[in-house]
Amino acid sequence: MRSSPSHDLNLVASHTTAAASAVSDWVARHYGLPVQQCYLIRRNLNDNYAVRATDGSRYVARLCAIRPRGAFNVDFEVALLAHLHAQGVGVVTPVLAVNGATNITLPFPEGPRALVLFRHCDGAVPDTPEELHLTGATLAQIHRAAQSYAGPASCYVLDGHHLAGRTLGYLAAHPELDPAVLDAYRQLIERLLSELANVEGTLTRVMCHGDTHGFNNHVYTDAEGVRRAAFFDFDDAGPGFLAYDLCVWLWSNLPRKAPMEPDDALLQRWHQYLAGYRAGGGHVTDADLAAVPMFLQLRHLWNMGEGVARIHHWGANLMSADWLKKQPDVMAAWARLELPRG
Question: What's this model's pTM, rounded to 2 decimal places?
């Protein structure tokens, strides 16, 4: 007779991917939604699942990953989205659980994780200059409407420590990073934080979306034939700097290899993005625009930290020691960018 293996206490899960059938069951049980179809969209910072109800309505279930930075920010995110939606701003709308909770907590081998349900955001990623203009205008509307937000506070403030200070600690734990490279990062981060401290009093502060790289909003045509934009994935949102929220789209599109200068087409798209932001009622100062090269570097460091902090389940190759060694040169080139104030 074959004996059943006992549980090995040394077998520890770093990240579990739930089967779509389990997510379908949780959504039906906790949200009262009869599910027709459920499948995994992608694993990234979180695990996202497409959900279709029997009446044809579509949703996205986000199974939040445990992040080294700290607690889930769901109560703030859901309250902010409800406030923005009530103000008529284009954002995805969350769905509360049947007990009125913003999320449900599920016991995973690696620890408790939050499941949040959102209505599906129709449309496609903005691509044309006109769509980028609309994207910028909607971002301005988000910033303006969020000024009257009075709900739960964000767990995070998108300041220098959040964007770069944490990254240094994550890099120090990298298994293959040369001490000289780590020291170069230490000097870079200290310089950027000093630079930020010198100008932060002149910069516009807003409630940042935090991840406006161009793939977290869609452009669609409404029932009246009007083109509109809607933003989603506010799990990195929090109070911060306008220059940061604006720069993330540019960071996403800048070349990473020499020559690292934006071409005319990219500059034109950036101009349309800024013009749209102003058309939506947003005010951008010269100081904000002058700070964009600095925030491009801080954004790169934040993104780098998010990757390095997940080596335990993404693997070291995603943020390899060789790639990390090259990034200070990329950021040095971005620091020298002379962008049109447009």
Answer: 0.94
